[in-house]
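Chain A, query sequence.
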Amino acid sequence: MNERRRPTPPPSSAAGRRRRGGRARRRRGGRPRLLWPGLTAGAVLVFAGGLALNGGTESTDSAGASSAPEPGGTQAARQDAPTPEPEKEEKEEKEDGGKKDTDADSGKGAGEKPDPDSIPSSGPGTFATADGGGDRVGGSARTLTYVVQVEDGIGIPARDVATEVERILADERGWTADGKVGFRRVSGGSSDFRVRLATAGTVDDICGRYGLDTGGEVNCNVGQDVMVNLKRWLLATQYYADDVTSYRALIINHEVGHFLGHGHEGCPGAGRPAPVMMQQIKGLHGCRTNVWPYDADGRPITGPAVG
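Chain A, predicted structure.
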């Protein structure tokens, strides 16, 4: 796999806050490294198209809202590259504990899946920010504020995405289970990080500013941005094909985990739940699917460090 390298700061003001990155493949012509969490042939949350978003949102350019210092003190450039799995291996993994996480409390899918060819591959690079704000959830040691943004024109209301992200970050099996970190969604002013759903082209552009090659397929965490590829948001991956909503929890927990300073982990053993920081898109390796960093009893679900 690729070695970790210090990503090249982007021209924006976010350059001073880069965090340590994870594994990734090098982008042709660039020096920075990539991190590829659990994704198949798709990118992160990205929106495109020509439809207007509804309900109390504000538009920003791709530079987005003002930023605040990240928890780790440096910025991270993280991305998960999809690696095609042999058909035989995929079948074995599904039979060996590769069942979907029926205890995910994240619903059964997200409605009928769209035709992959109907998902826009690029957009204007401007975003609508979900209005309002959420209640504080989690521990009292530190509270991280965040905004939820959706690329303009893709026909998905930013408020709907914000509701889903809030639910994921508030889950008792999420990152707040450590009793220390807390989250609160805001709609303006400075924020610690941004969750941004965008089209593959916009994800490639923003992640590429940090030297990451998302290849139109995957998500990434760069600086204060948790970039979600629209294709992955709508279609999930082969292991979550029947439970897209649960896969969305994996996207958010994995990329926010990188923002919190967590690196990639491997499968701890056959039949055990896959850590949320495992690159599940690249294969389960005998583990069973899981989208939460902690179990229902508050115990962390971890595996051996990778890279």
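Helices lie at 87-95, 158-170, 200-208, 230-235, 244-259. The chain has a mean pLDDT of 75.
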